[in-house]
Structure formats: structure tokens, C-alpha cells
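TL;DR need C-alpha cells for one chain.
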Amino acid sequence: MRVRSGGVLPAVGPFVHFTESRETRNLMTAVNFEYIDKQGVTHAVSAEVGETLMEVATANGVPGIDADCGGCCACGTCRVRLDEAQLSSVPAMQDDERDVLAFGGSGDARERLGCQIRLTEAFADAKVVVATD
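>> reply
TL;DR here they are.
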């Protein structure tokens, strides 16, 4: 065991622990893409693979992505429109997402909830459109 002032640290084994900063992770997994808001204004963003489109939009202040339910797939205030390439790169829509979109009157097959779409490398240089009402 290793000893430090004020107590004993447990042995951690032969492993080397590496703690990476958010900046380091962004360099390794950053995806740059654009949001186009309801007024047609472009917002360039950079985000980590695995974040949801809703999280990225709210963190970057993209207008029109309100995320009232906080990403629980319950409100429909994070609707985005994806192009065919993006749609083919994301998982199929689940029933709860389909229900929220139907309740909100969405008839556009390209619309998805941003809280249900996790960012992948396929979104590099993409344009994600904030859905209009």
C-alpha cells in the first residue's frame, strides 16, 4: 500500500491511469456540422460523438430547439429534419418517438426528435435543419 499524509491509498494494481480532459476528447472525437434554424440562419457547431442532437443544440444556443422535457422523448420541442444520408445512418425510430411526432402533427418522414439521435461520424459536415411548426 502507498501511504500519503492523512491516510492510506489502496493499491491500484499495475495499471496506468490516464485521465483525459474534455479538450483532449474533443480532439479525438469531435464532429463539426451545422444547424439551420427556422429563420435560415446557420449555426456551426462542434460536438463529441455520442452526444444527442438536442444536447448539442441547447449547449450551442440554437434557436428553435427548446428541449422542454430535457431529452425524455415527451415534448417534441427538439424536432429536426434530416436528409436521406443522415436518416440512413441513424437507428430506426422507436414507438415512443413516433407517438410524440404524430401527436405534434408532424407528417414529414424526414423529421426526428433530436433527443433520440446520437451524434456519429456520419454527421461530419452535415446540415441539420430545425423543424418548423
